[in-house]
Write a structure and sequence with these properties.
It is a single chain. Helix content is 74%, strand content 0%. With 131 residues, it is mainly alpha-helical. The protein has one domain. α1 runs antiparallel to α3 and α3 packs antiparallel against α4.
Length: 131
């Protein structure tokens, strides 16, 4: 029961953060355009990442696809954190965006662990076959 509550709290938190940032990506807000310009991904990368963040949020909320959403979210947020480490930095307004990326990454990793039995390739991860 506690595992289920923790899972839902982390899933909703990650999905809410992902969905909140979509507005800025899809409306070409100046801050978002600046970030993706620095990364050399403007405009197609901004839209592509936005679409995948939307898919991630939906998959996280649907119980049967939670692990897939967490896996996708962990991948996307790993890229976001790497972008902050290598090009964007963590100073000024990038600090809060970097922290949000780290928060979503941690949420997705915990949710992925909690729902690892949903993954079809769990035997390759040396996870128990009968959870």
């Amino acid at each position: 029961m506690a595992k289920n509550r923790i899972s839902w709290a982390l899933r909703l938190l990650a999905a809410a953060i992902l969905l909140q940032t979509l507005y800025f990506k899809f409306t070409a807000a100046p801050e978002s355009v600046e970030i993706f310009t620095i990364l050399g991904m403007e405009p197609h990368g901004r839209i592509f990442i936005g679409v995948f963040e939307l898919i991630t949020a939906i998959l996280l909320i649907i119980p049967r696809s939670t692990a897939h959403g967490a896996l996708l979210g962990a991948g996307i947020m790993s890229g976001a954190v790497l972008g902050h480490i290598t090009k964007l930095g963590f100073s000024g307004p990038m600090f809060s965006l970097g922290l949000l990326a780290i928060l979503v990454l941690v949420c997705c990793l915990i949710v992925l662990f909690l729902h690892r039995n949903q993954l079809p390739f769990r035997r390759f991860l040396f996870l128990p076959q009968n959870p």
